[in-house]
């Protein structure tokens, strides 16, 4: 079956530091890949997505590139802010699955200190 | 647009009690989902409804039932709550069309404690 593995947190950074969160996946078929973000006390919001190999998703200064050869979709941001403190989830959607189901990784908590 | 709404926001139950979590969306989405979120385990799919009139089990369906009341509403029922069902429950919705992948939109969650 499908699975997503992402680095465990918490990740603690200073403001303006570089952030990388690793994500690797196992899937049959050709999944689409997503990063969702969950701010404290809220539901998940889509941060970015990529639907095919070599696609780069980007939003709010975050980027991730769909690497089929390494089955990875690592999230990066060049200069984090305190407001980026949140839990980040990597997820995949198998186009063959009925109902557009998502498989999530365990989440990585990021804490940015001023 | 309110997006995806869930009620209640918080609930405390005693073991053996029953309750229904309500979810509604106003985005005309075909598909709806119920997840539970436990520390370190990400989100796990409980049940989903690919379209109005259909429901299917997800990864962790035991102890739960669902009803797709209409296109807008999808409820989750705990018939006899157990402490292992203490969790945060999220409802989500999305478009769904064969061969296409769509973003899921999430509600704010229901924090359930079973004592």
Task: Describe it.
Chain A contains no helices and twelve strands. With 114 residues, chain A is mostly beta strands. Chain B has 115 residues and is mostly beta strands. Chain B has strands spanning 4-7, 10-13, 19-25, 31-37, 43-49, 56-57, 64-68, 74-78, 87-94, 105-106, 110-114. In chain B, strands 2, 4, 5, 6, 9, 10 and 11 form a seven-stranded mixed beta sheet that branches. Chain B has a four-stranded antiparallel beta sheet with strand order 1-3-8-7, with no helix packed on it. In chain B, strand 4 and strand 5 (43-49) form a beta hairpin. Chain B is globular and about 40 Å long. Chain B starts with a strand and ends with a strand. The mean pLDDT of chain B is 92.
Lay out the secondary structure.
The complex is a heterodimer of chains A (114) and B (115).
Chain A: E1 3-6, E2 11-14, E3 19-21, E4 23-26, E5 32-38, E6 44-50, E7 56-59, E8 62-65, E9 75-77, E10 86-93, E11 102-104, E12 108-113
Parallel strand pairs in A: 2-12
Antiparallel strand pairs in A: 1-4, 3-9, 5-6, 5-10, 7-8, 8-9, 10-11, 10-12
Chain B: E1 4-7, E2 10-13, E3 19-25, E4 31-37, E5 43-49, E6 56-57, E7 64-68, E8 74-78, E9 87-94, E10 105-106, E11 110-114
Parallel strand pairs in B: 2-11
Antiparallel strand pairs in B: 1-3, 3-8, 4-5, 4-9, 5-6, 7-8, 9-10, 9-11
């Amino acid at each position: 079956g499908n699975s997503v593995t992402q680095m465990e947190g918490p990740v603690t950074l200073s403001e303006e530091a570089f952030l990388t969160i690793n994500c690797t996946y196992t899937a049959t078929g050709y999944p689409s890949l997503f990063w969702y973000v969950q701010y404290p006390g809220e539901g998940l919001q889509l941060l970015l997505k990529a639907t095919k190999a070599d696609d780069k998703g980007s939003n709010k200064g975050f980027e991730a590139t769909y690497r089929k050869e390494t089955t990875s979709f690592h999230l990066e941001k060049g200069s984090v802010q305190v407001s980026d403190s949140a839990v980040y989830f990597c997820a995949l959607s198998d186009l063959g699955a009925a109902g557009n189901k998502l498989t999530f990784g365990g989440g990585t908590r990021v804490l940015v200190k001023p | 647009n309110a997006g995806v709404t869930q009620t209640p926001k918080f609930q405390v139950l005693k073991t053996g009690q029953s309750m229904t979590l309500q979810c509604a969306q106003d985005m005309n989405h075909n598909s709806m989902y119920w997840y539970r979120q436990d520390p370190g385990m990400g989100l796990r799919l409980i049940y989903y409804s690919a379209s109005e009139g259909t429901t299917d089990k997800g990864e962790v369906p035991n102890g739960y039932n669902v009803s797709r009341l209409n296109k807008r509403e999808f409820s989750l029922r705990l018939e006899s709550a157990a402490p292992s069902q203490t969790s945060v429950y999220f409802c989500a919705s999305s478009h769904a069309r064969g061969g296409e992948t769509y973003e899921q939109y999430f509600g704010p969650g229901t924090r359930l404690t079973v004592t």
